[in-house]
Amino acid sequence: MKKLNLFDKLLFFFNSIAATTLLLAYILPYMEPKRFAFLSVLSLTVPFLIIVNLLFVIYWLLKVKKQLLLSLIVLLIGFNHVASLYKISASKQVEDEDNIAVMNYNVRLFNVFKWIPDIDATKEISQFIDDKKPDIISMQEYRPDKTLVLKGYYRFEAVGGKKIKNGQAIFSKFPIINRGSIEFPNTYNNAIFADIVKGKDTIRIYNVHLQSLKVDANTDPLKNEAAENLFRRVGSTFRLQQAQADLFLNHKAKSPYKTIVCGDFNNTAYSYVYKEIKGNELKDAFVEAGNGFGRTFDFKFFPVRIDFILVDDHFEINGFRTFDIKLSDHFPIMSKVKVKQIGG
């Protein structure tokens, strides 16, 4: 520190705070929000903290200063976190006639309140889906709309509300033989499922929409709300998400079928609810086959991935893609998966 000028000393002070905070964030997935709600809010900042620490490493490297070791060591300790933020490898795309294309999309009520001006969201989403031809579609913030044209799909809708009916939907090109809703209490958020049949296989598709954070993607939250109130509100949301994840996991544990979990978790891959839902049984399609940041929520300050496609070990993941189209505040994601052959 003696060889650092005043500016670099001040910078290293902030570097130390960023590195320490990121190190703390690594243990947050193991801390129940109902017990540590205030701290759990930090999980939302992990992408930002990783980027900041990378910038500090670059800065000290260019200045040939040993201070780079602080952030470098912290980043290496959390290598899996860094790897899940940005996938350097090329996106995996294996074409196979047995692939099942699974899409997840929070459609934000098809832009009914014109959040995005000058678009016909329902028409354009219909055209987008027709172009990409997914076999299964999981939608959150879905609103029944006669102008939504999806030909050749069986569907299951679970909607409620008085003024504008909304909820979730699962569309499938394969027959749906069973369907149901888990019913999260005291909220419009929910989890639904549909059992589909493809050939000899019955597959359960879950569509999970955990409690919403109600954060404006284009506005600094601290400009509209005091920090203490923001942390308290988000912490309360995380506690609800934990209870909802528990209900989902209890239901999933009783399923006898091969399983695909889609959804908007309203939380990142660094959160407690993601760790619990994914567990050791499911694989994250983006981690296995995606590339880049994989951001799924249009948050202007840093990349955020809160929408997921997870599959159990009965499936091979042959592809993953995030589509950069702005018809909602979320971006659609699609994975190509294949049921493993016995002995394969």
UniProtKB/TrEMBL annotation:
Source taxonomy: Bacteria, Pseudomonadati, Bacteroidota, Flavobacteriia, Flavobacteriales
Organism: Gelidibacter gilvus
Highest rank taxon of the organism: Bacteria
GO molecular function, one term: hydrolase activity
Keyword Metal-binding found: yes
A GO BP annotation: DNA repair
UniProt-listed CDD domains: EEP-2
Pfam families (alphabetical): Exo_endo_phos (PF03372)
Transmembrane segments: 12-31, 37-61, 68-86
The name this protein goes by in its record: Endonuclease
Domain Endonuclease/exonuclease/phosphatase: 104-330
Cofactor(s) required for function per UniProt: Mn(2+); Mg(2+)
Keyword Transcription regulation: no
Keyword vocabulary terms for this entry: DNA damage, DNA repair, Endonuclease, Hydrolase, Magnesium, Membrane, Metal-binding, Nuclease, Transmembrane, Transmembrane helix
